[in-house]
Write a structure and sequence with these properties.
- The protein has 15 helices and nine strands.
- With 335 residues, it is α/β, with parallel strands linked by helices.
- It folds into two domains: 178 residues, D-Maltodextrin-Binding Protein, domain 2 (3-Layer(aba) Sandwich), CATH 3.40.190; 132 residues, Glycine betaine-binding periplasmic protein, domain 2 (D-Maltodextrin-Binding Protein, domain 2, 3-Layer(aba) Sandwich), CATH 3.40.190.100.
- The strands form two sheets. Strands 1, 2, 3, 4, 7, 8 and 9 form a seven-stranded mixed β-sheet that branches. A two-stranded parallel sheet has the order 5-6.
- Helix 2 links the parallel strand 1 and strand 2.
- Helix 2 crosses helix 13.
Length: 335
């Protein structure tokens, strides 16, 4: 998961992907969707309706597990049908504003200040801040710790001003410059600007997805080769690999105000939050209430991420396992 073009992004280039015919098409069908509980409660819960709830899923696993948890509970406890929409994190704002989407459950605020102004703060907007999700996110630059052990200068951005050190990360694609491996181009990311403004001997190459970053990381670490990547917390990779975050210049609001082209500082800590369509509070108040109350810890999310990324569980099975193990947490969302 995700700043103008990062694990999250400020650009508007992402377009809404077609709504999938069913949650199963994304591999995110909640196990509880077909349960007896779901069919028994259909329409009988106070505040439930016949509306199909359309949840946005962004291209990272944290977003996916959040959606899987919510979709299973909406189905089993409220009795409403859920569809999942694969969508760029920027394009989702306009879709929620028009109620073509019901909600998004993991917004990284550092990349969406203008969207908040346009769709939440604007009197004509139709998007509601549905409160904090719970986990605190942080985007950063990471290298294997063995690279810092070998070259302590690489623990900070200044080390990448040295052409010889930066060249350690060079690839056929970047020539004499070191490669900085980004993820999905739709993620919020200011790395090209940071590199240019700090005068670093690096070039950004986009892996294309979270999975591609992890595959490259796993391959490099298995051979103890240099690699510099865009990654974030919370993420199960930090439990699997010994990684060091490269120290960038300290974040400041003044620096962030220069986005996207003027950024020359670190990413901020992000208190992840949820957004829902204002229409949902009228059309499906039970669902709106559940999503607004939905809140768990960083450890809760990492538990599910580890199940998916380390243990090989499906997203829906990881969510179902978490639901089974933590009833005291999610039952409070239904009160």
């Amino acid at each position: 998961m995700i700043i103008n073009n990062v694990r999250p992004s400020v650009s508007r280039r992402g377009r809404l992907v077609r709504v999938l015919a069913a949650t199963a098409a994304l591999g995110l069908v909640a196990a509880a969707c077909g349960s007896d509980a779901g069919s028994d409660s259909g329409g009988s819960v106070e505040g439930a309706s016949d509306e199909v709830i359309k949840l946005a899923v962004n291209p990272w696993n944290g977003s996916a597990v959040n959606v899987a948890v919510a979709s299973q509970l909406i189905s089993s406890e409220i009795g409403q049908t859920v569809e999942v929409v694969e969508v760029d994190e920027n394009a989702q704002w306009a879709a929620i504003n028009t109620a073509d989407l019901s909600a998004s459950l993991e917004v990284w605020p550092s990349g969406h200040a203008q969207n908040v102004v346009d769709f939440i703060d604007n009197a004509d907007g139709n998007v509601v801040n549905a409160g904090l999700l719970g986990p605190v996110g942080k985007i950063g630059w990471y290298i294997p710790t063995y690279m810092v052990d070998q070259h302590p200068e690489l623990a900070t951005w200044e080390g990448f001003k040295d052409p010889e050190l930066a060249k350690l990360f060079a690839t056929a694609e970047t020539g004499d410059k070191g490669q900085f491996l980004g993820g999905d181009p739709s993620f919020v990311q200011f790395d090209e600007a940071i590199i240019a403004n700090l005068g670093l001997e690096l070039e950004v190459v986009y892996a294309g997805s979270e999975e591609a970053i992890l595959a490259a990381l796993d391959s490099a670490i298995s051979r103890e080769e240099p690699i510099l990547i865009y990654l974030w917390t919370p993420h199960s990779a930090h439990n699997k690999y010994d990684l060091t975050e490269v120290k960038l210049p300290d974040y400041s609001d003044a620096c962030a105000a220069t986005a996207p082209d003027g950024v020359d500082c670190d990413y901020p800590a992000d208190n992840l939050f949820k957004i829902i369509s204002a229409d949902l509070t009228e059309s499906s108040p039970a669902v709106a209430s559940l999503l607004t109350k939905m809140n768990y810890t960083t450890a809760d999310q990492v538990e599910m991420l580890a199940s998916v990324e380390t243990d090989g569980m499906s997203v829906e099975d990881a969510a179902a396992s978490w639901i089974e193990a933590h009833p005291d947490t999610w039952k409070a969302w239904l009160s």
